[in-house]
Amino acid sequence: LPMTNTHEAPIGVFDSGVGGLSVLGEIRSLLPNESLLYVADCGNVPYGEKTPEFIRQRCAVIADFFQKQGAKALVLACNTATVAGVADLRERYPDWPIVGMEPAVKPAAAATRSGVVGVLATTGTLQSAKFAALLDRFALDVRVITQPCPGLVELIETGDLVSPTISNLLRSYVEPLLAAGCDTIILGCTHYPFLKPLLRQMVPESISLIDTGGAVARQLQRLLTQRELLATGPAQETQFWTSADPEDFRKILPLLWKTSGYVRFFPR
């Protein structure tokens, strides 16, 4: 039932899979009093290969579910879902604080010294008009090299963050960026922060790795503060749903969320 005490109501967060747990972790550390709900649409991962219409439809179904759960805010912890669906959701729920993901073009353009920025992202994000507009706005004097990374999300979904398979695949995507003189690399998908330790082994210390989970948590904090919706705590235990086998998700939680949790099935 939707809660009557709105500032103690939970925050709904979703992604096409486990990647959004990287954002969920940033929200938890910045806003420890907030109760969190997380839907992983693992039955439809990766969104990067789906049509915008399909993604918009999933966004609507999941947003509707969070409304019924009484969520006071919504976070799209997925770059591809944000590109395809956030405008629709804001139109549909004008009074609901909604936060999406944007690849960190602005901070990367500010951070680069070589003037060359690399972007690791899914095909869906890189092909979007929204991403092109971000480049137009923030990357005027900067050369941006975009690198689609098919296959990474699927491996991360299995909990593989270190094997030779993912290592070789990641290296094949990173090497062209290094060869082009990038000194700043944007992790343009919420799954990729989980590969930071692996990436750090591949790139020189001097290269900045930038993701936007922290910025999303701060934006959420701003919106909740403005509306006087910040929770005073204590937070309820985080609840998880997945549209694939809950057992698979349960297995991966200790690795990516650092604690186990109760996982329910979310209809596909």
Describe the protein in words.
The protein is an alpha/beta fold and 268 residues long. It has eleven helices and ten strands. Strands 4-3-1-2-9-10 form a six-stranded parallel sheet, sandwiched between helices. Helix 2 packs across helix 3. It starts with 10 loop residues before the first strand and ends with a strand.
Distance between the termini: 22 Å
Radius of gyration: 18 Å
- What percent of residues are in strands? 15-25%
Approximate shape: globular
H/I helix tally: 11
Which residues form runs of ≥5 with pLDDT under 50? none
- Which series of helices and strands comes N to C? EHEHEHEHEHHEHHEHEHEHE
The averaged pLDDT comes out at 93
Number of strands: 10
Largest sheet: 6 strands, parallel
Structural class: alpha/beta
**Spatial arrangement of strands, main beta sheet:** 4-3-1-2-9-10
Helix content: 40-55%
Sum up the structure in keywords.
alpha/beta; six-stranded parallel sheet
Secondary structure: elements and pairs:
Layout: E1 11-15, H1 21-30, E2 36-40, H2 52-68, E3 73-76, H3 79-92, E4 98-99, H4 105-111, E5 116-121, H5 123-126, H6 129-138, E6 143-148, H7 152-157, H8 164-179, E7 184-187, H9 196-202, E8 208-210, H10 213-226, E9 239-242, H11 246-256, E10 263-265
Parallel strand pairs: 1-2, 1-3, 2-9, 3-4, 5-6, 5-7, 7-8, 9-10
Helix pairs in contact: 1-10, 2-3
